[in-house]
């Protein structure tokens, strides 16, 4: 269950952030506190953004910053930052970003399940829109907990 | 068998999510293909028939022998379905 990863403590809501780097840092805060990631992990995200652009901005309003397991991931984990005013990630067609989901994965079966559940959430248009428009903790939790209606073939 | 490669910056998160969606879409289309995901560096030396990736990454794979399709919205399954239906 995604809700087991995105616990209340790993979901943050904020009115605004200074810039996308600020958004990434704030999204990382609970994972840093839980020692799910090392500070290097943030540097790796900033480095790959500088090298490759904002490729981790998946869709309008949604970013999923992450780095490779060996770049400072210590445990599997997820965090979510909701930014009410949105922020630019320099991703022309997907800005502004309202929801930042940080992903860290060490490896193994567990992280496959975690990413698989994210895929289910993101590919269900109604759940995704529900998540992107949620402005309270309860509404975010409802969006991530709602079982997918789409059947996998 | 045709091979579809999903490429992202580090071959871990975004490309994996798209791979799962591509597998569902291929089943809907009744097509079979080998589907895998990888990072940009590895992708340069891999062969494939069709590559899907974020637009930023696709620009760096322009010289790849595969047909390369960049997606500004990686979760746009209707677009992915149209690409696979037409080009695979």
What does this protein structure show overall?
- The complex is a heterodimer of chains A (153) and B (88).
- With 153 residues, chain A is α/β, with parallel strands linked by helices.
- Chain A contains six helices and five strands; from the N terminus they run H-E-H-H-E-E-E-E-H-H-H.
- In chain A, strand 2 and strand 3 form a beta hairpin.
- In chain A, helix 5 (125-133) packs antiparallel against helix 6.
- In chain A, 46% of the residues are buried.
- Chain B has one domain (3-87): 3-Layer(aba) Sandwich (Rossmann fold).
- Chain B has a four-stranded parallel sheet.
- Helices cover 41% and strands 25% of the residues of chain B.
- Chain B has helices at residues 14-29, 40-44, 55-58, 77-87, and strands at residues 3-8, 34-39, 50-54, 67-71.
- By secondary structure, chain B is of the alpha/beta class.
- The model of chain B has no long low-confidence stretch (mean pLDDT 94).
- Classes of the chains: A alpha/beta (153), B alpha/beta (88).
- Chain A binds chain B through residues 48, 51-56, 58-60, 62, 64, 66-69, 91-94, 103, 105, 115-116, 118-119, 122-123, 128, 152-153, and chain B through 8-14, 16-17, 20-21, 24, 27-28, 39-40, 53-57, 60, 72-77.
Provide a compact summary of the structure:
With 153 residues, chain A is α/β, with parallel strands linked by helices. Chain A is built from six helices and five strands, in the order αβααββββααα.
What are the key terms here?
heterodimer; A: 153 residues; alpha/beta; Mannitol-specific EII, Chain A; five-stranded mixed beta sheet; 6 helices; 18% strand; globular; B: 88 residues; Rossmann fold; four-stranded parallel beta sheet; 4 strands
Number of domains of chain B: 1
Uncertain residue segments of chain A: none
Q: CATH topology of chain A, which one?
A: Mannitol-specific EII, Chain A
Order of helices and strands of chain B: EHEHEHEH
Per-chain topology:
The complex is a heterodimer of chains A (153) and B (88).
Chain A: H1 2-5, E1 11-14, H2 20-33, H3 39-52, E2 57-59, E3 62-63, E4 77-87, E5 97-104, H4 108-122, H5 125-133, H6 137-145
Parallel strand pairs in A: 1-4, 3-5
Antiparallel strand pairs in A: 2-3, 4-5
Chain B: E1 3-8, H1 14-29, E2 34-39, H2 40-44, E3 50-54, H3 55-58, E4 67-71, H4 77-87
Parallel strand pairs in B: 1-2, 1-3, 3-4
